[in-house]
Prior knowledge:
Low-confidence stretches: 3-16, 656-675
Strand content: under 5%
Order of helices and strands: HHHHHHHHHHHHHHHHHHEHHEHHHHH
Helix content: over 70%
Mean pLDDT: 76
Largest sheet: 2 strands, parallel
Number of strands: 2
Amino acid sequence: xxxxxxxxxxxxxxxxxxxxxxxxxxxxxxxxxxxxxxxxxxxxxxxxxxxxxxxxxxxxxxxxxxxxxxxxxxxxxxxxxxxxxxxxxxxxxxxxxxxxxxxxxxxxxxxxxxxxxxxxxxxxxxxxxxxxxxxxxxxxxxxxxxxxxxxxxxxxxxxxxxxxxxxxxxxxxxxxxxxxxxxxxxxxxxxxxxxxxxxxxxxxxxxxxxxxxxxxxxxxxxxxxxxxxxxxxxxxxxxxxxxxxxxxxxxxxxxxxxxxxxxxxxxxxxxxxxxxxxxxxxxxxxxxxxxxxxxxxxxxxxxxxxxxxxxxxxxxxxxxxxxxxxxxxxxxxxxxxxxxxxxxxxxxxxxxxxxxxxxxxxxxxxxxxxxxxxxxxxxxxxxxxxxxxxxxxxxxxxxxxxxxxxxxxxxxxxxxxxxxxxxxxxxxxxxxxxxxxxxxxxxxxxxxxxxxxxxxxxxxxxxxxxxxxxxxxxxxxxxxxxxxxxxxxxxxxxxxxxxxxxxxxxxxxxxxxxxxxxxxxxxxxxxxxxxxxxxxxxxxxxxxxxxxxxxxxxxxxxxxxxxxxxxxxxxxxxxxxxxxxxxxxxxxxxxxxxxxxxxxxxxxxxxxxxxxxxxxxxxxxxxxxxxxxxxxxxxxxxxxxxxxxxxxxxxxxxxxxxxxxxxxxxxxxxxxxxx
Length: 675
């Protein structure tokens, strides 16, 4: 038996006969259990014995079974080694470890967020290349052919624009996107023959690829969002991990190098700063009077009203800048008007977070509250600016709120824009380029000279100026804005994820250089779990902002008559019913029609409501169980303290007033109340 093997191995005496029943019960449980032997808490000799007991009597393990078991063991070990190697050789692992040790996990989460965005862009680019570009190259799209004999009824003899003022400057053409007008970077270069003449539908692939990319990105962001949920959301706001656990278990005794030890010391120090700062603010909140709380609430409302007014002014500036640049095409102002909307958006997104941080830092908010409040308003500013930019383009190109002859006849401003999809793609391309160039210019033309001047000169002014602080809300705003612009351009500029991947890759090293050389550590550290959650929340809101206009354009807006894949369709989505009628048999068509009808939608809605009700009920029951377990844990601790008190009274001398045992918190509180 197992105990005999253990006795022979350890040389200790056998257990008393009273323990025979326990050994037999344990052996029966081990023999009947389906738990893998490798996870059992026994020595290797005992595990071999348990494996022999689990085999049927009189049946020997065949050579095939032994070989298969060895192969499974070798495959499992190989997989574990591969996972360890992938973690060790992951992208930017060393840099992330260094940043996390020197500046805390909050700043490290920003650079981890950059890596996550790079993976999302590469995944999007892979899908677009696999389902659109490679089949399009293989099938060899038809030639453009002669121009359509299509006469536009423009007021006043106004002819459609065939171009813009020309500048024979290659760099300027690259920056404005004019150098790539006839390439696969923009929508207008994609062409395909009739659907009945090809087995593979390029139109359907081009239509569904952006939708599939947005869906996969949504699932990936949601997964990261759930993993990054703050622990306090499940344990309660009053839960605090004991500092003693960090004191005695934070150090890694496998560290050998001096550099790694220094980074680990900084990491532990940053964790203690976060804990102590949160504890200090919690004590301040607990000792606040009603008057102080009312004053704090009024100050909070005042700050938010001021920030709201700034956001409204920024939205108005973006609207008028976009409208003016699209309505005026004079050659004398062409250079200025090309980058007027991106410039105004960049200026708003640069000054907005700085003003937000300044207004929020005037109050004594905790680090996480300060960062989260600033992030919320930065999100509002970013979403509002991009939303207003999209609405302004729609008003100009698609005549939202306007009465034009071309809009009434063709569904878009065909007199001024023959290929309006290319025009939208060019605007988003310029916005993406301008955001990256602004990041590079600010790093090497503002941050670097400021650091050199501060190190070169001494004095009260230079001490006050100091190096810039690495503002997390501003940097998150910049990178999320670039990613949102990329998602908005998936239909109009399919290769924009390639461009954004390059920008994100270079941004990592630029921001790392700024952080390590040009910036100073934030005096108010914050926890990484809450910031990661807010990063993903901001990103998912940006994805929704990109998905809503795309869904409206795909389902309701008339495509351009002179370019692209959907020239003969009233809307891009019309290719789906056509392919269903051409490729699917009648029974499959009836099934699809039923799935899209109200007869299927209403029962599905009711079923989803029931599932949601069950999930909410389960979550509430789990919350009640957690509260009960927490109270039970408190009662058990108090019971142990009472037992210690009783034991201390028993071992104390009769008649002595002093107790030799420890004193429970409950008894100390009672004594304090009595005194």
